[in-house]
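Re: the multi-chain job from yesterday

Posting the exact lines I submitted so nobody has to dig through the queue logs.
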Amino acid sequence: MDLNQYLEVFIEESKEHLQTCSEQLLELEKHPQDLGIVNEIFRSAHTLKGMSATMGYEDLANLTHKMENILDDIRNEKIQLSSEIFDVIFLAVDDLEAMVMSIAEGGNGKRDVSEVVAKLEMIENGESLLSIGTAEVAAAVELPIRESIEKSVYDEFELTVIQQSKEQGFESYEIKVSLREDCLLKGARAFMVFEVLEKLGEVIKSNPSVDKLEEEQFDHSFCVTVVSKESMEALQKKIMKVSEVDEVIVSQLELSELRLALNEVDDHKLIMNKENQKSNNEPVVPLASTKDEKTNHPASKQHNKTIRVNIDRLDVLMNLFEELVIDRGRLEQISKELESTELDETVERMSRVTGDLQNIILNMRMVPVETVFNRFPKMVRTLTRDLHKKVSLEIYGAETELDRTVIDEIGDPIVHLLRNALDHGIEMPEVRKANGKPEEGTVMLKAYHSGNHVFIELKDDGAGINREKVLKKAIANQVITEQLAATLTDKQVYELIFASGFSTADQISDVSGRGVGLDVVKSTIEALGGVVSIDSNEGKGSDFLIQLPLTLSIISVMLVEIQQEKYAIPLSSIIETAIINKTDIMNGHNQQVIDFRGKVLPLIFLKEIFEVPETIEEDGYYSVIIVRKGDKMAGLVVDSFIGQQEIVLKSLGNYLSSAFAISGATILGDGQVALIIDCNALIK
Amino acid sequence: MEEIVTSETVKVIVFQIKDKEYVIPVSKVRGIEKMMHITRVPRSLPFVKGVINLRGVITPIIDLRARFEIEKAEYDDRTRIIIVTLDNMEAGLIVDSANDVLDIPETSIEPQPDVIGNVATEYISGVAKIEKRLLTLLNLDQILNQDEVKDSVVKEA
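And the result, structure tokens for all chains:
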């Protein structure tokens, strides 16, 4: 069977399941009693195991299997959660992620996971990673709990029901129904058993719960408790009539025994908790009995109904839509000329509908920043452990939507800033304490819409930026001169940390400052048409603000004419426009320049660079567009300005992907193609 | 080639350049367009005429006369752009006219003779003779050869 066609789906879904795993693990760390979360993780891991085995990624399947064993034990309360167990599971998830990434990049998904597997096995065998003490407790606890799973435990209410029915002449039975191994519709069979039982008496309890039976979340057997006047044999026979039922064991319940069992379980819980508290200080989860489980179960998360659409298809839809917009323009023109009311009305209606359509299509390409943010909590957790710091990450506005193309690019810069904040921003707990701050630092990540932009703010309550330190470093690294340093405002000083060749960490650490500075962040964001700024308060923390355009597929440009050809220049790189007299041009060294507001500005004659055929006589003036790349500027000489316009950015296609100084193309209202000039390639 | 004895046929589009007839398999053709406005792409290879807006997709256009180094001709009403696709890449080929779709038996396709007039032989994958018509099969891979395009950019840089 050719599995390649499923590979993409496999990778996407694996990523999703791993994401669920890490999210839920973090959640579980906060609420260790909540076994519902364990179930959630278990389900994801289980699906992942199945998928990877089908796809033939044995290593992936093996590791998931090991992890699943642990989760199963946690779920069945054989293992108690402790922070070292969390560490190992996180490690396993990390490895799984690395494997899936390797598959996504065309690798074979193989990876040496022996260390993690060994650790997982140790946990599974009840051996503690840190102290032998906990292992003993775990072993001691294991036995009675396992029994409690086998036999249902009844709470007070259920016991009362049983007692009352007995008084009215009903017998209580516990029935264990096992379905055949090859049974396909377990849920349906369970339902049929229930139907039989409800005719014969009343079902007062089932283990697992009825909901879970319906969702087929059980192995091959389940337990029901019924009160009925029928005999044990009659019950057994009638249930056996349901097809695919393998075995039915009916046992009569004795009230006195049940009461005893209930007390025992309670006692065990108490003893265990005490022992655990004595044996180690690690957070140990008190075991939840089956009856607690019910109340603790959060309603399983409601997932939005979505379908997966390839982004290429959306692009095609967008293209076709643009074609429609161009035709709409022509139609509007025609209807104006014909002056027919009926045609006018129809065209107007069509314009409205296409306007709505445009909004929907643009919205479809929007993705919540959540997809980028959701990997941060785990990253922060690992980092703070490595750095021995205490940091809590607060995320706001994860639902804020951005264009898919921006989302793909924005992840790395934020990771960089986040690492920077954790490494250089937040101080060590002792230092924080000494400075009268809470030991745990806070990093706030916030995303929000404002106008035509999306802002992402990263704020920490760490040490802030030391002006003197930055200046000293900048001078030492020859970023600025000493004379200039004295004249800079605080804000300008802070901006220096984005300069290339700058890193303030006294020591090069593993986390950030690997020679790659924040200048990379700045250039990435500027390449996206965004701006990054920084504010800081020494001793109180720093605040990074990233401003991004809502979408990269629609940009504002200045349309210009060079002879008879039309070109578009992105507004983001334009500073201003000017019309200059030919006599103002000076001849510099191999270069024509003008004096522009006291600065020498080199001129770039686009007509010559683009080898535009000359058909129109020139007059005595030049139209110049002043553009910048970083802090360098240049004047682009064109023939005339047409005006500012919002355009849809399109690629030139694979064949011409490396065209000189052209970053893409767009389709103008008249259906013709205009090329977009890449100013960065023109300024050396 | 002679030993292949099958009754398989290939459906091809027939078009003219100068006085010769060339063919491309229909499976590689996405459509045939009339001449439209072409936007020149600066500093590209001489045979790349520019790009067109093909129903919202920017498509590069290659002039086959220029590609084959045949003398230029004015574009007229019969000039067509054949949109071809190869390895996820779309391109338009300007031809003098395109007016026929033929089924040619695979058996009639022969390797190109050593001398075949003025078209550089590297662009040709074979010839087929059908009822006194000589059809030349084009080698699209070679016509859309990417290396040449990239080389020119490297040189300019």
